[in-house]
Amino acid sequence: MAWTKYQLFLAGLMLVTGSINTLSAKWADNFVAEGCRGSKEHSFQHPFLQAVGMFLGEFSCLAAFYLLRCRATGQSDSSVDPQQPFNPLLFLPPALCDMTGTSLMYVGDLLIIMAQIIVAIQMVLEEKFVYKHNVHPLRAVGTEGLFGFVILSLLLVPMYYIPAGSFSGNPRGTLEDALDAFCQVGRQPLIAVALLGNISSIAFFNFAGISVTKELSATTRMVLDSLRTVVIWALSLALGWEAFHALQILGFLILLIGTALYNGLHRPLLGRLSRGRPLAEESEQERLLGGTRTPINDAS
């Protein structure tokens, strides 16, 4: 089935804003600035605080949802209201998965496999709830953002005191040091610009993602999400953030071929080939059976 213009718009929005989100987070990580208490310059390594900012961006979608609902009051437009009873706590499990998966991916590559499993659970739960309760994408993203923002903000307090040793990226060696992050932002304002780009882009990215889940499926959403890796890789090479490896080309070719096969882009080509073969066979059959009739043919 061909995609509608709205579905193509959502796919493009998801690709662009998702790429901006990852690149802005990488940009923030590359900054070096002094922290609190006269500490030496060090890189901005605050994964859990960045995750809080991500949930703040998602939470803003809930404000946008209620603004749209107030605007639709008194009109016949009911697209911003669920058609079935909806309990916001349904989105607590996906929010917890989002919080855990995103934080783990921010921490390091060693935990990516675990993070992907958790994200897969999140995608399945979101698809189930948005289909079953017909939840507006803005409300779904905003509700997840609310839960994630509140829970992770509270967890920043004990994280400030939990020692993490070499696993930590801040001078105090704790799991997270939010105060050190704010001091670094104060001394290097460009970090705030990067964080603002991360917060704003995640709102549009997750809105587009949930909309794709509702319009198509969670599988399609993840296939599209994998495509932004190509954009991020190309821009990272151009900015000098990544080193080029020839084997990556093969990996991206496999990724693109798999995406094309999943979306059925090979079907028109196969259709042309299948239409071409019957024509040749039919002409050969007509040549053999449609020749000049003979008495022997007539006798049959």
Summarize the structure.
With 300 residues, the protein is an all-alpha fold.
* Overall geometric form: globular
User: Which sequence of strands runs across the widest sheet?
Assistant: 1-2
Mean pLDDT: 80
Number of strands: 2
Radius of gyration: 26 Å
- Helical fraction: over 70%
- Total domains: 1
Amount of beta strand = under 5%
Protein name: Solute carrier family 35 member F6
Region (Disordered): 281-300
Signal peptide: 1-18
Transmembrane segments: 48-68, 104-125, 145-162, 190-210, 230-262
Account of the protein in words:
Keywords: Membrane, Signal, Transmembrane, Transmembrane helix. It comes from Papio anubis. Residues 281-300 are annotated as: Disordered. With 300 residues, the protein is mainly α. The chain has one domain (5-218). It has eleven helices and two strands, in the order H-E-E-H-H-H-H-H-H-H-H-H-H. A two-stranded antiparallel sheet has the order 1-2. The mean pLDDT is 80.
Descriptive tags:
single chain; mainly alpha; 11 helices; 72% helix
